[in-house]
């Protein structure tokens, strides 16, 4: 029903995102049933947010010019109560990125914040350090319990749904926490896995506004199940990372509520 | 003969285009037999237009900086009588984009203007509204007769060849109008189908300058036939949108005049 | 051992590169065993270079803003003795690009400079002219002897390892020159072959710092062998350029020192 809703509504997703993975994000947004529009000029972003159903802010390759546009878009989105998704790519990697991430968090409301544990810890004022745009090795050993606690804590502080990606994904608001065990190691072997997920989350949540936490969970499951199906396509030979990426987006395109119901491995945790 | 000319001449196509689909545009331009050069800095664009055979201006992800560069390039291109193609992506989606589109149309001559019906209507001062960068649902029901009339009208006003993409594509100057029925619904299921076509049009027209209308038609046929062949590759299973995109550009790479002659479904209409 | 070292160390590669091929560069860097980080804002680039193991400067789609960032990054990289790779895409194509290329060469130290013969000739103050971002037809006929001489000459002037790509690739410092005969004509049939190689060189060299010339040679071999394997995948039918590109990066992902040892065709020349 979540996928079906999304495809019936075909929401428009405004993305201010990095130029590294933007094409894959656009195609993944189409694949799941929504329509992407990428626009980052200060002269038009607020108008484009206004006609869109959701706004994705991705901090990869941010610059002074686009940060202003992000703020103008977020202002409009908050005014109109649109779905907003923050993807704080490499949030702690530089002072500039750190301060932008913190500023956005302070000045605007986000419906969902999605990051790896290093990024989410940073936003939560916990000591952490990314390895570039990837999770740090140290953070890889954090217990699921701790991660869930961090998610709930940031959810409480910000009012946002928190998605922490990792071997096990966490999807949480301040009261309820889900884990999802779909997906596999190949998803870290290409650039843009997280960016794609942020796009999917925006699409799923704005098409299923009455159940945002469940919708965010379904977006995570959709991505993970697609990753699992993509991997199964090449069981006999080692799959290359580019073919895997293509298969993943293809599988999002072919996704259905039934497939998610059959293959999703999620549960609510305490 | 159009494809053969293009491959023999290997023209250089200067593109000032959006960062979403730029890679696919570059590879499609190579695939058809031309060479792409993407450059958008005001300090070099005029020089690069000067050494190029054609200029493609694509309004997706435009910004203040690149609009200045578009104008400098167009000025040079018009001065040197180069082939110029305008792709007014989402022309009416914001005041900024609308005014840039209208300004470019007023200040510069275009050899070809290519858009979906919503975009072309807007440039023709007809009431319309895009859905983001896609055609609006309302415009989808316009009759072929009306669309042809709109194309001829804009061709008369601007002196440009007008290409209107849709289920049936229209290629028209002020006197002669062709329709092309190749292509299929998968071409709207990935990002950049229109951007790729604009690149092909520039390549075909500048390599076949004595027959620009026919060359634009052949570019549309090339794209449509490639789309049809790409779809046929995956008749037994549902094809994903990323695989379809890859197949499409691959088929452009393998295109020949013979294939177009065999498979193109075009005719002249009154 | 070069590939093994690279995968064991998983170095972080900071790229200031063009928006045309950036996604393929990122995925190729992951494929070979390193991690990419693309960042070009003046407010963060020096910091990001500082935490990275190597810096790639690619002049495609450069602009005034990113040139400042390139200089800030290079300053930091030279200060910290990081591996730096220059890819002077289309160096002579405009006055702006020419002067930036020459300025960077004058003001900063590069570990490796990689280009086609037209680009390297230009940096060497020899008469040449690119065809857009491709080698000029005239330069295609230069003898291997002359090319090797040009490489050694620029190596002596700059202290950099020089890589000249072409039908036969040249890898040279001021004393020792290798040629590599892997690779094939398909590698010029998609956009970004050279950009990918620059990323690989940065990764191989910074993970094998004690043998930089051999490491650069191994990067060239890795790329060429991957291209050869990619081509062999489609011997029965003509392969499209997009499928070839995907196969190439996939083969980099599956590369091993053993494969390079088996398949690399390189030798030292006088």
From TrEMBL, chains A, B, C:
Function: Catalyzes the phosphorylation of the hydroxyl group of 4-methyl-5-beta-hydroxyethylthiazole (THZ).
Assigned protein family: Belongs to the Thz kinase family.
Pfam families referenced in this protein's UniProt entry, alphabetically: HK
Protein name as it appears in the record: Hydroxyethylthiazole kinase
MF annotations from Gene Ontology: ATP binding; ATP-dependent NAD(P)H-hydrate dehydratase activity; hydroxyethylthiazole kinase activity; magnesium ion binding
Key words of the record: ATP-binding, Kinase, Magnesium, Metal-binding, Nucleotide-binding, Thiamine biosynthesis, Transferase
E.C. numbers: 2.7.1.50
Cross-referenced SUPFAM superfamilies: Ribokinase-like
Catalytically driven reaction(s): 5-(2-hydroxyethyl)-4-methylthiazole + ATP = 4-methyl-5-(2-phosphooxyethyl)-thiazole + ADP + H(+)
Biological process terms in GO annotation: metabolite repair; thiamine biosynthetic process; thiamine diphosphate biosynthetic process
Amino-acid positions noted as binding substrate in the UniProt annotation, renumbered to this chain: 38, 192
Positions annotated to bind ATP: 114, 165
Highest taxon in the source lineage: Bacteria
Cofactor: Mg(2+)
Pathway: Cofactor biosynthesis; thiamine diphosphate biosynthesis; 4-methyl-5-(2-phosphoethyl)-thiazole from 5-(2-hydroxyethyl)-4-methylthiazole: step 1/1
Database matches in InterPro entries: Hyethyz_kinase (IPR000417), Ribokinase-like (IPR029056)
